[in-house]
Predict the 3D structure of the following.
Amino acid sequence: MQKVTDYSDLTRISYSIRKSIVKSLATAGSGDTGSSLGLADVFTSLYFNHMSHNPAIPAWEERDRLILSFCDAAPVIYATLAHAGYFDLKQLYTPGKPVSRLQVHPALNKNLPGIETSTGSPGQGLSMAVRIAIAAKMDKKSIRIYSVHCDGEMQEGQLWEAAMAASHHKLDNLTAIIDYNGLQTDAKTTDVLNIEPLVFKWQAFGWNVVECNGHDFRQILNSLEKVNEITGKPGVIIAKTTMGKGIKTIENNHLWQGRAPTHEEATEFLCQLDESLILAIEEIAKSGF
Ligand SMILES: [Mg+2]
C-alpha cells in the first residue's frame, strides 16, 4: 500500500476514522468509544504509513501482521481497515449484530479481511504475536509482527510470560504497542492496580523501550522506526494517549471506555471532531513539519 507521509494528510485520515468510529458505535448502541478514539492516530500511522500490507490482497504472504490484543478497541481496527480499503465503509454500520462480520471483539470465523486472529480475553494477544514472530523467524521471513495493548492489560500475568518468551527467543521482528492513557474501565490504572514503573519492567524483561506522544505523527512514526533497531531484542512502544481524543467533552473520562454515544450525542461529537481536526491541522502548520 502506498505510504501517506504528509502529517496533515495523516491527520485528516485519522479524523475520518474517528468519525466512522462514532457513527458505527451510535448505530450499534454499544462499544468502547474512548479507547477507540484514543488509538486512531497510532492505527493511522501503522496502516497508512508504516506497515507492509495490501488491502487488495489481504492474505498476501509477505504482509506484516497485527494482533489487536486490546480487543475492546475493535472499532478502531474496523474503521481503519475500512478506510484503508479492506472492505466497504457501509459494513461499519452493522457492528455487533449476529450476522455482522464486525463482532464486539474481532472474530476470525467472520472472515473480515485484515483481521489476523480472534481476540477476547485481555493479556493473551502478546502470546499469539510471539508465536507468529517465532514462526516467521523459522521460515526466514522478513515480515514484522505488531501487537496492540491497553495499559490495563499490563495487569495480566500471561502478558509477562509472553514478554519473557519474546526476549528469550530474541524476537527483534516483534513490536508491542501500549495504549497508555492511564485509565481502564473502572478507574485510573494507578487506583485499580498500579503498573508502574512500566519502562523499567519492560527493560527488565529484555525489551527495547521507546516512549512517544500517541497523537504526534512525527513521534509515532519515529518510534516505529527506532524501536527495533537493536538486533536480538523485541521492541515496545509506550504511546501516551488521551482517551476520547478529539471530543473535548469526553476526553480523559474512563466511563467512555465502556459506552457508545446515543444518536444525539453522536451528532454533537461529529461537530466536535470537525473542530478538533481544524485545530490539529493548524498545530501541524505551526510546528513546521
Ligand atoms: Mg487504558
